[in-house]
Amino acid sequence: MTHARAERAALCDLLDRIGPDAPTLCTGWTTYDLAAHLVLRERRPDAAAGIALRPLAGYTASVQNGLKAKHPFPELVGMVRTPGGIYGLLPFADEAVNTLEFLVHHEDVRRAQPGWEPRELPADFDQLIWKRLSVGARLMLRRSPVGVVLHRLGGGVAIGGAQEGPKVEVTGKAGELLLFCFGRQQHARVDLTGDEDAVARLLNATLGV
């Protein structure tokens, strides 16, 4: 099983267990909203553009709400569990596009619940995360108001953020650095070193793709 499929299955198992009304780290979204988002992303290409393009966000939101109205929560989770659209036809596309997406959303649910602790990810998964993060760090950190130096525990450095001014050193495992760069700064287990004001600005910045 690929890491994308494993994260997808683990997320769906968790959704089935905690139900439709549990919180997530996605602002304003319950688990029902997140399940509808994931179905829309794979099975409604006409509405998926609004995920990234603000002018189309209204239509995307209406389709997402329509999915909730049409499908009971267990049915939506079942649709998430089986890759849809191109990802169902081309497993390599699922692995290429969805590995990090489902890891982050899995943690969006896990870390919104009380008593969570970081998972110990397999070494090859940690390496894959870092490989992709080190390539995408500049894009994910492009809105950072300060410079950022990522230090992966176990080896590896990547940079991003503002080219001028103070820099903040962010140290952690690859998965934690990924969550930080995806905009989950408050819920990533990392160590931050730098000017106090710069650290505060980075923690409250809008990061991610």
Can you walk me through this structure?
The chain has helices spanning 3-18, 31-43, 45-48, 57-70, 73-81, 86-89, 91-110, 123-140, 174-181, 196-203; strands at residues 147-152, 157-161, 167-172, 191-193. The protein has 209 residues and is of the alpha+beta class. It is globular, with a radius of gyration of 17 Å. Helix 1 packs antiparallel against helix 5 (73-81). A four-stranded mixed sheet has the order 2-1-3-4. The chain has two domains: 3-110, no CATH class; 123-203. Helix content is 55%, strand content 10%.
* Envelope shape: globular
Q: Structural class from helices and strands?
A: alpha+beta
* Cα distance spanning the termini: 27 Å
The average pLDDT score comes to: 93
Quote the beta fraction: 5-15%
Major beta sheet, strand line-up: 2-1-3-4
Q: Radius of gyration over alpha carbons?
A: 17 Å
Count, helices: 10
- Note the quaternary state here: single chain
Query: What is the β-strand count?
Result: 4
Q: Give the H and E element order.
A: HHHHHHHHEEEHEH
Which stretches of 5+ consecutive residues score pLDDT under 50? none
Largest sheet: 4 strands, mixed
Helix proportion range: 40-55%
In the residues, how many domains can be counted?
A: 2
InterPro entries: CHP03085, DinB/YfiT-like, Maleyloyr_isom
Protein name: TIGR03085 family metal-binding protein
Organism: Nonomuraea typhae
List keywords for this structure.
209 residues, 4 strands, TIGR03085 family metal-binding protein, CHP03085, alpha+beta, DinB/YfiT-like, four-stranded mixed β-sheet
